[in-house]
């Protein structure tokens, strides 16, 4: 059995940034990025996440598979562990893109 490569804080930040950008671009789902951040970024199993958050394995699985109907407090607890916050964003791509552009300086 091979041990996973230790990931640095800078690598974890870069991974998180890349995954969130992919999600905002519509190229991946919240569940997909959460699974990668948990397994590669934090190098944790679902069981370890459950112990730290108090969530059931089914809830963690549902979040990572974009299924079920997890409660808002469960989502907050899970994403807090990953270093993320839940946010409200516009569904329309054009609206979202305009929000993501750097502000125009006056």
In brief, what are we looking at here?
By secondary structure, this protein is mainly alpha-helical.
Topology:
Elements: H1 9-24, H2 30-41, H3 46-53, H4 57-64, H5 72-81, H6 93-100
Helix pairs in contact: 1-2
Structural commentary:
- With 106 residues, this protein is mainly α.
- Helix content is 58%, strand content 0%.
- The mean pLDDT is 89.
* N- and C-termini, Cα separation: 58 Å
Looking at the overall shape, the CATH architecture is: Orthogonal Bundle
CATH superfamily: lambda repressor-like DNA-binding domains
CATH fold descriptor:
434 Repressor (Amino-terminal Domain)
What is the CATH C level class, in words?
A: Mainly Alpha
Roughly what fraction of the amino acids lie in strands? under 5%
**What string, H for helix and E for strand, traces the elements in order?**
HHHHHH
Average pLDDT reading: 89
Number of domains: 1
Q: Indicate the percent of residues in helices.
A: 55-70%
Rg is 15 Å
- Largest sheet features: none
Give the tally of β-strands. 0
Shape: globular
Keywords:
106 residues; mainly alpha; 434 Repressor (Amino-terminal Domain); 58% helix
